[in-house]
Amino acid sequence: MSQRPIQEIDDMAARWVARMDSDAWSDADDAELGAWLALDPRHGGALVQAQALWSTLGQEETVEADPDVVRVDDAPPPVWTRRWLLASGGGAIAASLVAGLVVLGGSERYDTGVGEIRRVPLADGSTAAINTDSRIAVAVAETRRDVRLEKGEAWFQVVKDPRRPFVVEAGNVRVQAVGTAFSVRRREGGADVIVTEGVVEAWANGAEGQKIRIVAGAMAFVADNAAVRRPEPGAPAVERALAWRSGKIDLVATRVDDAIAEFNRYNRRRIVLRDAAIADERVDGVFRTDDPVGFSRVIAGSFGGSVDLSGPEEIRIESEQVTEK
Amino acid sequence: MGTTQISNRERQRRRAAWVAKHVIPHEPFVRRWLRGARVPPEEIDELIQDGYCRFAMLDAVDHIERPDIYFFSMVRHQLGRRRKRARVVPIDTMSDLGEFVHDEAPSPEREVAGQLAFGRLKTMLEDLPERCRRIIEMRKFDGLSQREIASTLGITESMVENNIQAGLRQLRAAWAKDEALASEAFARLGEGGRRA
């Protein structure tokens, strides 16, 4: 199936590495290298492998990352920035003055459409970041603050007020905070709770005796029947799970089908995987929630498929045999 | 990123540095897995090269946090694809060992892998012809440039380059055949103990 035997390509790659390593490297050499690389995709693979072996031998070159790459989100995904808090905090106070009268006694509802992420100030000065396709209802009263997460996911930065507990109701699951920041996401049969600051208590309605505490940097799934699942603790996982607040999806060794499901939360144009063989492969990367096409291309490029954009409703990831036409 | 044009050589060098750190140490491991799945040797070479090819093609690799898993995943996938094309029933061992590698090995494990790879390659140097080995050592460990090596040994620069090329080819072949590293890795992680 291959025109040139692999051995020959490997040998040429070794020649290039030795030449690149030499003191006499001209623009002409560089152009010739570019031309060779363009000739056959396998050339790039052979070259990077040979050269990587070469640099493994010299420790000096093995440290750096890929500096010609700009990571879109250079700062670590937000441990919610002070700046943002200040900016929105001002707004929150203003909004609470206006909204206060309306809110008394009643509840305020906020919706987001697919792909929309909204930040809203709540009447008590707290803020909510509401993820795609979600709905919350907020009722702030004298003695308590109640939020009902009717669907989807939201993150809350709660203003401290010991006299008025802040309780989020997500189906049968309850999460309570005093002054802290956390997110709640409704799932089939329960809710995910992720804490970014302080401590929350969570429980299933009717099982108040079995409250669990979740501390900053930790997450837990609380089932409607009060069962609790806690993954390994670790801040990176928490920050990753909340990357949506800056419009990102952050995947680490995530199954392809799970990653696609994640993208489809944010976009009306759905990604459809037509090659079941890819479903359980793993992907890594930080992607924009609004760029399902870019993500699909990475998947297709990594696992040898192609992307079909002909349908307005769907982005199809096809296996390569079907579409090469 | 359009600001300054970087040369092909520089681009290659950077990508290779990343691959050296994150992928090379795991190659013996993936090869070992392929051998376990009874893939013929020539096909293993093709699959591995194809795996490297994916890293060469990506515009950016910085965001890949688990290159070892990514690499393995691509190779395994490609194997499955070839098997399907060849209408051969997928092999059992695929899912079996697959999960093993997918285990979230802690990061110290991955750090160690890099050092082991370096040590292993150094040992392989000893099997090279005397002059070839000497030249590579001067270049890599003594930090001399090809030109400096040429004048020290009283040979031409192109002879130095040729020796490096030949040495690299041999190292690469040895690397592909190496059992020791993969066996160590399997032993360290507890082969069998973690199979599904």
From TrEMBL, chain A:
Ranges annotated as spanning the membrane: none
Domain FecR N-terminal: 13-53
UniProt cross-references to Gene3D superfamilies, sorted A to Z: 2.60.120.1440
InterPro entries from the UniProt entry: FecR, FecR_N, Ferrdict_sens_TM
Signal peptide range in chain numbering: none
Residues of the FecR protein domain: 109-201
Listed Pfam families: DUF4880, FecR
Name of the protein in question: FecR domain-containing protein
